[in-house]
């Protein structure tokens, strides 16, 4: 489904517009509005691509957590764009400039991570095993492809290299 057909986009665009208005009132400066896409997948709720002035959001996580996502996740990502436009690219992603925008301008907690249930959004179809008895570790397609190319992933408990078992069909 393209963004133009997505029923969630108007609510997101309205929230982004309100956040930009808050920033413009606070800093007495106009900011260019970002492009918004809902093509982010997996466990990540949102990404701000500061150089492209682009917001990438996870449609599945939005669908399952609409009110909180609009308030907090969209605010979190917009704060990244505003911080970059105000302070440049040499700031830390969740540094004091971003925290200031979150807390003092948007009046939101400056939290770095979400706690959404990602079971429906996360796709980890490749099962691996380690030396731990009966333990399987699901890996994403990206990590599986990296393992094929030679990246070695270790179990966080036994510290042994993971070995591929099978691909799970969806």
UniProtKB/TrEMBL annotation:
Please state every residue range assigned to the domain named SprT-like.
14-165
Pfam family of this protein, just one?
A: SprT-like
Q: Which SMART domains match?
A: SprT
InterPro entries from the entry?
Answer: SprT-like_domain
State any GO BP term from the record: response to stress
> Protein name, please?
SprT-like domain-containing protein
* Organism, scientific name: Endozoicomonas numazuensis
């Amino acid at each position: 489904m393209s963004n133009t057909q997505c029923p969630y986009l108007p609510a997101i665009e309205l929230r982004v517009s309100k956040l930009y208005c808050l920033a413009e009132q606070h800093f007495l400066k106009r900011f260019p509005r970002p492009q918004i896409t809902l093509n982010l997948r997996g466990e990540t709720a949102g990404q701000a691509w500061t150089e492209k002035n682009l917001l990438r959001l996870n449609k599945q996580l939005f669908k399952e957590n609409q009110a909180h996502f609009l308030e907090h996740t969209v605010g979190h990502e917009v704060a990244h764009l505003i911080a970059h436009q105000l302070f440049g690219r040499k700031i830390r992603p969740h540094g004091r400039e971003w925290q200031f925008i979150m807390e003092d301008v948007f009046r939101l907690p400056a939290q770095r991570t979400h706690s959404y249930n990602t079971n429906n959004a996360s796709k980890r179809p490749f099962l691996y095993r380690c030396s731990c008895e009966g333990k399987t570790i699901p890996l994403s397609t990206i990590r599986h492809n990296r393992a094929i190319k030679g990246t070695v992933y270790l179990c966080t408990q036994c510290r042994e290299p993971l070995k591929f078992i099978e691909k799970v069909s969806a």
